[in-house]
Amino acid sequence: MFQQWKLLVWDESTISHKKDIEALNRTFQGLRESADIIGGMVVLSAGNFRQNLLVIQRGTPADEIRACIITSSVWAKTEIFCLKTIMRVHNNLDSGHMQRLLKINDECLNVDDEGYISFFREFRYLLENDVNLNAQVYPGLQQILNCDSTCAPNQYWLITMILSIKPTLKI
Question: Domain DNA helicase Pif1-like DEAD-box helicase: where (predicted)?
């Protein structure tokens, strides 16, 4: 089955140890009998180094960097594409939302005398239930879910779909 795969999607790869990608490389090179990186298979590796790094128990920040996948020999042969549109930000009517998210990532936040972080008012939500949470995080999702088979394909689904592969097993 692995020989037939054309694409491997690896979400949150940025928190993976470099040994993980190196083991994946050796495994698929062996399974596919190919010296190409990852046995010649396309790997869609998703993640954001600005959000989090892997954790090394009792390790120093230098240990975390040394273990990061970007220090792997496989990474040097990786072609990198960057996300151009973040749909949740794109759909948000507040033009300053992206700047506030970047401030959080850059740790440029207001800290009071006691060391507490003051979050932007826009990030504080009092929600009564899961339905309200879904409506806040995914605005318009309920209308899309209520659409029956007679509806025309919604543009939202066409631009935000995630590729999912379902292998067929013959038993």
Answer: 3-112
